[in-house]
Amino acid sequence: MLQSDTLLYESKHFIIINDINNNTFYYFDYDERDHSINMEFEHYHPFFEIFILLGKEAEHLIEGHPYHIETNDMVLLAPSRLHKSSYPKGEPCKRVVISFMFPNNFFGAADTYREVLSPFYADVPIYRFEANERIKLFGILNDIYSFSDSPGYRGSDTDSFFIHFKFQEFLYELYTLQSKSVYKDDDTFNSIERKIYDITSYIHANYHEDLSLEGLAEKFFISPCYLSHQFKAVTHFNLMNYIQMTRIRNVEYKLSTTGNKISDIAESCGFTSFSQFNRIFKKISGTSPSEFRKINNKNKI
Question: How many whole angstroms separate alpha carbon 299 and alpha carbon 19?
C-alpha cells in the first residue's frame, strides 16, 4: 500500500468497470470543476457515490441542507439522495468521484454489505479524517490509481478483479474508521438563512405530504409573505416550485428504479391531481412520465 495522506491525481484519468446495466459496476473519475457548471437544482443517482474534494473548498447541498467542505473531505451519497456540488468562483477545483453499485444480495451477504455501507446513510454523510486515517484510506485508493495507470493495465477481467478486491478493502476500512471523523457542520448562516434551510430540509423529508406556503409559514413561525420573499432570496426558487422540483426528482427516481404504476408513484410523491402531475412533470423533465421511464430503463447512465 502506498503510504500517503494525499490522493494521487491526474486530470481526466478514469477507471470504468462495467456499467449501471450490470449488477456490479465502478466508475472512478479524476477531474476538476468550476463555478460555471454549478447545477440549478439537486440531482440523484441510482448508485452509490463517493465525492472527495481536492480543491480548497466547496459547498455540498444534500436534501436541502448546505454543508461546507474542505480539502480531503469525503461526501458519501446513497442511491436516491438528492444532492449537488457548488464550487466557488475562481480556479477550478480538483475532485475525485467514485460511483459504484453491487447486487442487493452481493455474494449472498446482503446484511453484511448493508452494515458496511451504513456510513452512506448517516444523517450527515460527510467524513473528515486526520492524517493517520487518511493514510489508511487514501493508500488503498492510491493502490487502485497506480495499478490502473501502470503500463501493464489492460482493463481485463483479472485487472477488474484486483480493483474490485481493493475497493472492498477500502469500504471496510472506511466502515471501521467512521467514528474517527472530525467533520463538524459549520453553521455560518444568519437566523433567516438557517430557518429557510430548515424548511428546505423539511420539504425533502415530507415532500409526499400536503405542503403549502401557508402551512409551512405556520409551522416555522414566519409570515407567508416574508417566507415567500426570503425563500426566493436564499434558494433562488419560488417555494412552490421548489416543492414541485423535489417531488418530480423523487418521481424520476422511482420511475427509473421500480415497476410501480405511474399514478401510484405520483400519489406517493404528493401529487393529488394526475393531470396536474403530468403537466408539471413534462415542464420540469421535458418529456412524459412514460417516455422518461422508457428512456431511462434503456440507458441509465
Answer: 10
**Residues composing the chain:** 301
Which grid cell is 12? 481526466
Q: Long-range contacts of range 232-235, CB-CB < 8 Å, 24 or more positions apart?
A: 234/192, 234/193, 234/196, 234/197, 235/196, 235/200
Using alpha carbons, select from 63, 14, 23 the residue that is nearest to residue 197.
63
Contact between 90 and 75 under an 8 Å Cβ cutoff? The reply is: no
Element (H, E) at 298: helix 289-298
CA distance linking residue 63 with residue 146, whole number of Å: 35
**3-state DSSP call for residue 117?**
coil
Query: Which secondary-structure segment (H or E) carries 15?
Result: strand 13-17
CB atoms under 10 Å from CB of 262, counted, come to: 19
**Per-residue pLDDT tens for 11-56?**
999 999 987 777 789 999 999 999 999 999 999 998 999 999 999 9
* Residue closest to 166 by CA, chosen among 189, 140, 184: 140
**Structural domains for the chain:** 13-180 (2.60.120.10), 191-298 (1.10.10.60)
Rounded Cα distance, 48 and 117, in Å: 9
Residue with cell 410523491: 269
pTM above 0.85, yes or no: yes
